[in-house]
Design the sequence.
């Protein structure tokens, strides 16, 4: 193995070590199943290996990986059109339960339930912003839109999340026996959902 090949291997290993868990988690939220998420993440890093010399430097490579993951998952969906009805039911009803172990923290459970009730586009942009920590400009690069469009979508998704989350809080508050009717429910929404 030549020095150039060793340097490529070192660069890829560093890239994989830095971003693999983020890309697997991202694919896990978007793919139809855990095995599809693993396949998508593997394809993202195979593409990164093949294009390693053309990849951007610094934080831009992270955005490139998310954009590639988004395209890979979209391609998976197109190839699985016959299972679209099943995927939609699983994505809406069981995505959180399939991806996350039961949480002892009731607020975390409500966050995941609220995310599961959102439309897919709202859930995706919230996860990119709050979970993955991407800026609106980076989200725009991942989603293939203008930064101003990403900001507007993020604002609307946050507003919809808050509405759903507060509704779930109110539901849980009314279900708890012995709670005073005048006692307000907590309205703080965690910035990042728990993994």
Sequence:
């Amino acid at each position: 193995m030549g020095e150039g090949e060793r340097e490529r291997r070192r660069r890829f290993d560093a890239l994989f070590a830095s971003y693999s868990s983020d890309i697997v988690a991202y694919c896990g939220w978007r793919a139809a199943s855990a095995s599809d998420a693993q396949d998508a993440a593997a394809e993202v890093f195979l593409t990164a290996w093949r294009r390693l010399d053309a990849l951007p430097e610094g934080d831009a490579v992270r955005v490139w990986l998310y954009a590639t993951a988004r395209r890979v998952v979209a391609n998976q969906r197109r190839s699985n059109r016959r299972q679209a009805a099943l995927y939609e039911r699983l994505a809406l009803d069981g995505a959180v339960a399939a991806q996350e172990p039961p949480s002892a923290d009731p607020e975390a459970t409500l966050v995941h339930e609220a995310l599961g009730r959102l439309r897919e586009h709202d859930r995706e942009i919230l996860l990119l912003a709050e979970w993955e920590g991407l800026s609106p400009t980076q989200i725009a690069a991942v989603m293939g839109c203008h930064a101003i469009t990403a900001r507007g979508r993020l604002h609307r998704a946050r507003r919809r999340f808050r509405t759903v989350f507060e509704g779930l809080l109110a539901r849980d508050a009314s279900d708890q026996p012995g709670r005073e009717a005048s006692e307000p429910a907590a309205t703080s929404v965690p910035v990042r959902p728990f993994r």
In short: The longest helix spans residues 147-175. Residues 180-195 have pLDDT under 50 and may be disordered. The two ends are 39 Å apart (CA to CA). The chain has two domains: 1-83, 100-195.
